[in-house]
Amino acid sequence: MKRNNDFLVIGHSGGKAVAPENSLKAFQKAIELKADFIEFDLRLSKDGEIVIMHDEDAIDITGHNRLVYEMALKELKQLDIGEGEKVATLMELINLTKGKIGLLSDIKVPGVTLDFVNILRKNGLIESSIASCFEVVELLKIKEIEPTLKLGYLIPRALTYKRIVKRYVQRAGKNEFYAIHPNHQVVDREFVELAHDNGLKIHVWTVNEESLMRKLIDLDVDGIMTDDIALLNQVLGRSY
What we know:
Layout: E1 8-12, H1 24-32, E2 37-44, E3 50-52, H2 59-62, H3 73-76, E4 88-89, H4 90-97, E5 102-107, H5 113-122, E6 129-133, H6 136-145, E7 150-154, H7 162-174, E8 179-181, H8 189-197, E9 201-204, H9 210-218, E10 223-226, H10 229-236
Parallel strand pairs: 1-2, 1-10, 2-5, 5-6, 6-7, 7-8, 8-9, 9-10
Antiparallel strand pairs: 2-3, 3-4
Helix pairs in contact: 1-4
C-alpha cells in the first residue's frame, strides 16, 4: 500500500456518489470528503463562456435535447442538472474551490485552451492543477502556452489493444507529459512499469469497487478517479 501522501484521491465529476455530477454541490462535497483533486469537464457555451458539462448534449443530465455549444450561458443556467443545481462556470468552480483542493480538468472541446490557461494563471492555480485531454494536439497547445502546467493524456475507454495503448504511453513520455490517464481495464503490471519507465504518473478512471481499488493500489498506480471518495479514503486507511 502506498504512503498516504504519495497517492491522489480524485473525485470524479466532484463527489458524484453524493451529489449531481459536475455541480458546485458535488465539488463542495469533494472538499468535505477530503479528496486531493476534483476531476471536471470543460466545454464552451454559445457565447464563449467556459462551463462544466460532461456531454455535448444536455439531454441525459437535464432532459433537454440541446447541444451545449448551441446555448448561451443564460440558457444553460436555466437547466436543472439535478437537485436544483445549475450548470457551473469555470470561474464559479474556482471561486468555490481555490486553495481547498487540486483541479484536474478534462478538456472536451477545442478553442478553450488559451482562456483556460489564462484563468488558471490569473488565479495562481497553475501549480495546483492538471489539464487532461484525449487529444494530444490540445495538450501540446497547452505545453507551448504554459510549459509548467501538468498534463495528463487520456486513453479512450474503447482502446484496449495493447500495442496501441503502448503507443499512447510512449507518446506521453516523449512529449514529457506529467501523467497518463487510462481506463482501469488496461492497467496491469506491464502497463504500470511502462508508464513509470517513461516518467509518467498513472491516474486511473473511473473506479468505484473496493476490490479493484485495492488491486490498482497494489499495482502501484499514482492516483484513482472515483465517484466514491469516502470508500477510496477508507481503502487507503486515511482517517479524518
